[in-house]
Amino acid sequence: MVTAVRCCPVPFVFTAKPRFPMIFVPLPFVVSLFLLTFLIRMIRRSDDHGRENRAFLVLVAVYACQSVLVGLRWGYGLTEIVPALAIMATLIPPLTYLAFRSLAGDGREPSLGRDWPHLLPSLAAILMFVSAREPIDLLIILDFFAYGVALLWFGRHGPDGLAASRLDGVLRSYRALQLTAFSLIGSALSDIAIGFDVTWGDGRHAALLVSGGTALVLMLLGIAASVTEPSLRSDETREGEAREGEAGGEAEAPASQADAEIASAVDALMQTRHLYRDLDLNLGKLARRLHLPARSVSNAINRIHGMSVSQYVNNYRITEAQRLLSSTDEPVTRIIFDAGFLTKSNFNREFLRVTGLTPTAWRRLHQRSDEAKAA
Q1: I need a labelling partner for 246 at 20 to 30 A (CA). Which of 25, 67, 205, 269 fits?
Q2: pTM beyond 0.90
Q3: Where is 240: in which H helix or E strand?
Q4: Rg of the Cα trace of the chain?
Q5: Structural contact between residues 116 and 91, judged by C-beta atoms closer than 8 angstroms
Q6: Of the candidates 302, 66, 317, which has an alpha carbon nearest to the alpha carbon of residue 168?
Q7: Is-contact 176 228, C-beta < 8 A?
Q8: Strands (E), 94-136
Q9: What is the pLDDT of residues 97-144, one digit of tens each?
Q10: Which residues lie closer than 8 Å to 75 by C-beta, 6 or more apart?
């Protein structure tokens, strides 16, 4: 009797039909929902409704669409969408590269007339669907791998290479670029793993690898695209950045007299014009003030001060924050903006880097020191 009671529920659980049909929601659909959330946040936090950030807005929208297609294909077995899935997959790497390239500050916004060669992988995929489909997988692998390497090469100059990115967020943009590059390369390697599984493992794990791996890659790409910090730029600004893009040597060299003069001119700008207070300051804007190429200013700061432009400017901002913390009773939340920072997280990180303390702890320690001197 006891055995019957214990065993009866088991066949009931596995054989009974549910009263209501259960809805299966593939993981890529959940990822698509997250990506759409990122997209809405990007539009809301943009003062110009996304016009200056349109490359990354388009990019996240494409990621979301691709995630839906992956869910339909591997979650519900809709093979009819395979051509659209493959063609959109070949679009993702070049769109990603062009979006991050727009942060270089050289005036080269993504343009169909100028950047049409980046459509060649997609055109090749269309031709392959018409003629021979076998090489499409190899095409997608090469597409992701090549553009991943291209992004790493583009980022070889470090954060200062993103001259159009606001200095307050350039480090985050640079890390997003690195994450994106490694995600593209990782996607190519995962496709190779899927190929091995299909060849030697009869494809038993292919669906899981494709849906799970693609969802993870698209999520990482979406997060990376949504945390970039492009700066608001006018048409006049773009023209100035285009002139700056004609510049400059790439090889590292010892500091020269010219570097010392440029660094001295930047110091003067910071000390007399308090340019560091500009919330939207970027390397391109700083270089235009000096009528110099952005690369020349970046090299001079690196060689003379031994740091990136963003660290150099943030040092001035932290000095200003220290002055305000010690001489006023303003709350820290207001001092963040008065010193030139736009986000609390960047302010806290840079303050800790420079002083080794949090802003609140630094103010408390300084107040105790003043009280001890007064006593």
Answers
A1: 269
A2: no
A3: helix 235-244
A4: 26
A5: no
A6: 317
A7: yes
A8: none
A9: 998 888 886 666 677 778 889 999 999 999 988 887 778 888 989 999
A10: 24, 25, 26, 27, 28, 29, 211
